[in-house]
Specification:
The protein is an alpha/beta fold. The chain is built from 40 helices and 22 strands. Helix 21 crosses helix 22 and helix 32 runs antiparallel to helix 33.
């Protein structure tokens, strides 16, 4: 009898989940109901999936509203009707159109107009599929209305939005948040009526007992509706079924492409290669994944034609077919990649292919995919209310001052000292926490479907401009929709831009190598020496302090070693405590046989019996706990974080424990292994995935090894990486570059290099307007270099404030005129209030003024650079108030091993972390007086006593220790050093004494 039910996917309106709605129906003996969220279908698929568990027959619809003003309710007779409703809603959402009072004539959907709206619009005629909704509240007015005469058009429309008074209060708060008003100022027209609740069926029937025909009409309407989606284990994939329109043609094309790819990948295809290929092809055909592979091949083929760099990764990187189709660059034979992680008869979902493109190319690839295939959409996701966000929103709704809201957000308060309003904020914050706040876009998921996407969901149109589903990836997979992951990263752009820089800076070198010749890079001694010495600053995935530390400890000097390191660094291994154990087993021969369980060592000999990769979870579940591959895959998916709350995951966990007990393993061993498995949750990489990352790492390491300056410029121009731009500029300097501040005639928006002369881009001048930069570059390109300040002012419309920035950073140094004199000249040439938006028609006649002789010191320049660029180009040690009292640096650490050292360092980065007891400790990376990097550790007592206070130079006293050959300093004392007083604001006499004049 309930044809108008809401969940909390009626954003900032509804108050209960689809499962809570079903639970409510079960409690009230409601055997069938219609889910009709407001302009939303997010809950629909899961509602259909779970309804049988609650004894409810599901029906789907949509509550069409302009804001909170209900226009009509659409109810799908069947799946086709649901598609009609979704298409209608999507059209309005995409174009931001309001709904008209009357809906179009749907072929497979009913329409229910609210009693109030029928009266308001004086609707007198209704089509066969149109009805009038009567709520309990409407019954008082019904006898006095002519609508009573339309007996066959009347149905029960008792909306369901709340369970109880608390839900209603939460609803009012959500409405206040949505309207950005104080709760006391929320108009009643913005709220639902308090009586929008579900009553037991017999109570509802009793309320309408005088109008039995209304009950009969409603029952007849409900009985004529049905909806079905296949959620069974054997469901068919709902992705695009065929690539060429014919299954046989698809299979023939896949085989042809594999044959054509063999010579490129393997000089000689031996029996192992051919056997693996035939095994994969057989399973891919049997599982119906042929089109999935061909679509991915189509995408990467187009990318190569456009000259776009990409990396194929994910579990699909375990596949030889993917390797031959050039979807990935990972050789599964070389790496002995586990076949069953990629595909097995038990898994219904195709393998994961995450395809990374440059952040500059991803948009073009997305446009191609949307234009290439008929039914495409982005995959949605929900942004939920989080604790601090809810408290901030509710604090504003209750009118709390910002200071009180900040206290509640920080969590540092005594509940007994809070007032009533603050307690209400916390109380309702707990209720609203986790509810959907708004729809967003999955990081990279794209659906390419056989049916129109509106068969499954309405779509909205986020700012990106592509139709996006109103459901997320978990329910998408449940119904057989498997995403294509089209992602972006900056590492690929760095490689591509390095090639572009080489083309103008060292054109003779561009033909000497192929950036895709991975086999050459893997065996290159210069590249492997960089890995072994951990000289990886700026290189993809291997530049962080933690990764550099691990490379040193593992003595990695091969591609295979880097593949393992790429996974060991993940929290899954380190969290379980097995990272240290892996290092010990790697360095100490015989330790693996002594410490590892024989079965674990037999399963994973290559990683010394330590679980490192995602497929290790499958192997352990299959061989150690005797789970079949289907159950092992459920465990693996649970470990990815997608299904941890699902009951099937718990069943598999129970079976894991039971099977191990039957095999005679002790509980201590069983739960030790289980804890290792569980530590992988959300963090594990498939081995092929790690190998794909290692391929890109080797490409960037090759570029850094042979073309370090061009590569560092590309790193800087593409957002850097783990460190700040200042540090990459320092690295370029250490590699031999001469660094120049922005120059009017040499610089562009980004950084550029000529030989070894690196000119910083205008992008670092934070106060410089983009339009000034554009005008400058356009004029210089059109009419050549600028000859003087006067020439510049004549040719480029600019304000005195903007011109001052360029002069102060010494961008006019080619004139050989002191910048103070140039500033005088600029002020005399440009009135402060003059805003020229166009070049002068005629050059102004120059006026000559006598300006006193001025000069600038190096120290003044350093502080000006700090102000305008955010960093200085001189060594930070040059501007210390007191020079260092010793000359110790990284080069001295070995001599001080197990001794105490006094050392100065400029802070590069700090990692704040917590011990297992929850106390804070720090790992800090610094640059010494000679520009070399060293690392420090501050254990909790020291970290508490000596906190880092921002960027600058620190003096440390501590013990030099070695862990597996990696030297670091365990700090005992630390003191931040003062810089000199800014000479620009010091006494002029003092300023002359500091530093030397800039010539």
């Amino acid at each position: 009898m309930y044809i108008n039910c809401h969940t909390y996917y009626s954003m900032r309106f509804g108050t209960l989940s689809e499962l809570e709605l079903l639970q409510l129906a079960q409690e009230n003996h409601v055997g069938q109901l219609v889910l009709t969220d407001i302009n939303n279908t997010s809950a629909c698929l899961n509602f259909v999936r779970k309804a049988p568990d609650y004894g409810v027959r599901p029906i789907l619809g949509i509550d069409f509203r302009n804001g909170v003003d209900q226009c009509f309710v659409g109810i799908a007779k069947n799946n086709e009707g649901y598609q009609e409703l979704n298409t209608f809603l999507s059209d309005h959402l995409h174009q931001e159109k309001k709904f008209a009072p009357r809906a179009p004539s749907f072929k497979n959907a009913y329409l229910v107009y609210p009693f109030e709206k029928v009266l308001l619009h004086e609707q007198k005629t209704f089509l066969e599929h149109e009805f009038i909704g009567i709520s309990i509240a409407d019954l008082r007015r019904l006898p006095f209305s002519k609508i009573i005469e339309l007996k066959d058009r009347l149905v029960v429309q008792q909306p369901v939005t709340f369970r109880n008074k608390r839900d209603f209060n939460a609803h009012r708060l959500l409405r206040a948040i949505d309207n950005n008003v104080l709760l006391s100022k929320l108009p009643q027209t913005e709220e639902a009526r308090p009586e929008e609740k579900m009553f037991p069926v017999q109570n509802l029937a009793a309320a309408f007992s005088e109008y039995s025909f209304i009950l009969e009409n409603t029952e007849r309407l409900l009985r004529s509706c049905s909806i079905h989606f296949d959620f069974s284990e054997g469901r068919k994939p709902q992705n695009l079924e065929t690539y060429l329109g014919d299954t046989d043609a698809d299979e023939a094309l896949l085989e042809q492409l594999c044959r054509e790819g063999l010579p490129y990948r393997y000089a000689e295809a031996n029996e192992v290669v051919l056997g693996r290929l035939q095994k994969e092809l057989g399973l891919i055909k049997k599982m119906g994944f042929v089109s999935y592979f061909l679509i991915n091949w189509d995408i990467v083929s187009h990318a190569r034609k456009q000259g776009f760099f990409y990396v194929g990764r994910g579990s699909g990187a375990n596949s030889i077919v993917a390797y031959l189709l050039r979807i990935t660059d990972v050789d599964p034979i070389e790496l002995d990649l586990y076949f069953e992680r990629f595909i097995n008869l038990y898994r219904v979902n195709p393998p994961d292919f995450d395809i990374d493109f440059s952040w500059k190319d991803r948009e073009a690839m997305t446009q191609y995919i949307f234009g290439r295939f008929p039914h495409v959409s982005l995959l949605g996701t929900y942004v939920t209310f989080q604790v601090k966000g809810v408290i901030r929103e509710l604090g504003k709704v209750f009118g709390l001052p910002k200071e009180e809201i900040d206290v509640l957000c920080d969590g540092k308060y005594n509940p007994s000292q809070l007032d009533e309003m603050s307690l209400l904020v916390l109380k309702y914050g707990e209720l609203i926490k986790g509810m959907p706040n708004y729809l967003s876009i999955h990081a990279g998921g794209i659906l390419i479907t056989e049916r129109p996407i509106h068969y499954f969901s309405a779509t909205h149109l986020p700012p990106k401009g592509y139709p996006t589903t109103q459901f997320d990836m978990v329910i998408a997979e449940d119904v057989g929709l498997f995403k294509f992951d089209i992602l972006s990263q900056r590492g690929l752009a760095k490689m591509k831009e390095t090639m572009e820089i080489l083309a103008y800076n060292q054109p003779e070198q561009i033909e000497t190598f192929d950036i895709h010749d991975i086999k050459r890079f893997k065996t290159d001694p210069v590249v492997n020496a960089l890995v072994k010495s951990a000289q990886c600053m700026g290189c993809f995935y291997v530049e962080s302090p933690a990764m550099r530390m691990l490379l040193k400890k593992l003595e990695v000097d091969t591609y295979l070693g880097l593949v393992a390191a790429s996974s060991i660094i993940r929290p899954g291994v380190s969290k379980s405590g097995m990272m240290r154990e892996y290092i010990l087993r790697h360095r100490e021969k015989g330790r693996a046989q002594e410490k590892a369980h024989p079965v674990m060592l037999q399963i994973m000999p290559e990683t010394y019996g330590v679980m490192v990769y995602q497929e290790d979870v499958i192997k352990v579940a299959h061989y150690f706990a005797d789970l079949d591959l289907g159950e092992a895959d459920v465990l693996r998916r649970g470990m990815s974080g997608k299904f941890r709350s699902r009951e099937e995951f718990q069943k598999v966990k129970d079976k894991f424990v039971d099977n191990c007990r039957k095999k005679g393993y002790t509980d201590a061993l069983i739960f030790e292994i289980w804890d290792q498995v569980a530590s992988f949750a959300g963090y594990a990489f498939a081995k092929g995935h790690s190998a794909s990352y290692a391929v890109e790492s080797y490409q960037t390491l090759f570029l850094k090894a042979y073309f370090p300056l061009e590569y560092m410029v590309a790193v800087l121009n593409n957002g850097g990486g783990f460190y700040s731009p200042e540090f990459y500029i320092h690295e370029a300097q250490m590699l031999g570059a001469t660094i120049h501040p922005p120059c009017i005639n040499k610089s562009v928006a980004v950084n550029c290099i000529y030989g070894k002369e690196l000119y910083l881009g205008y992008m670092y001048l934070r106060e410089l307007e983009a339009r000034v930069m554009e005008r400058l570059l356009k004029e210089r390109k059109a009419n050549g270099p600028f000859l003087s300040l006067a020439d510049f002012v004549d040719r480029v419309p600019i304000s005195i404030e903007q011109l001052s920035i360029l002069i102060r950073i010494d961008a006019f140094r080619f004139t050989r005129v002191n910048k103070h004199e140039l500033l005088w000249e600029a002020h005399l040439s440009l009135s402060k209030n003059t805003k020229l938006e166009h070049p002068k028609l005629f050059p102004a006649k120059p006026q000559h003024f006598t300006i006193p002789k001025l000069h600038t010191t190096d120290l003044e320049m350093a502080f000006t650079q700090l102000e305008l660029l955010g960093f200085s180009l001189c060594s930070p040690f040059d501007i210390l108030a007191e020079p260092p009292k010793n000359t110790n640096g990284k080069r001295d650490l070995e001599a001080y091993l197990d001794k105490y050292i006094d050392i100065y360092g400029y802070l590069v980065t700090v990692k704040n972390t917590k011990t297992h007891k929850g106390t804070r400790m720090n790992f800090a990376t610094l640059v010494d007086q000679y520009g070399e990097v060293f690392d420090t550790v501050l254990f909790p007592p020291i970290a508490a006593q000596y906190p880092f206070r921002g960027r600058g130079i620190y003096r440390f006293y501590g013990k030099v220790v070695s862990e597996f050959g990696f030297l670091s300093i365990e700090v005992l004392k630390m003191q931040k050093q003062d810089y000199i007083q800014d000479p620009r604001y010091a006494d002029m006499k003092t300023s002359k004494k500091l530093g030397t004049p800039v010539k």
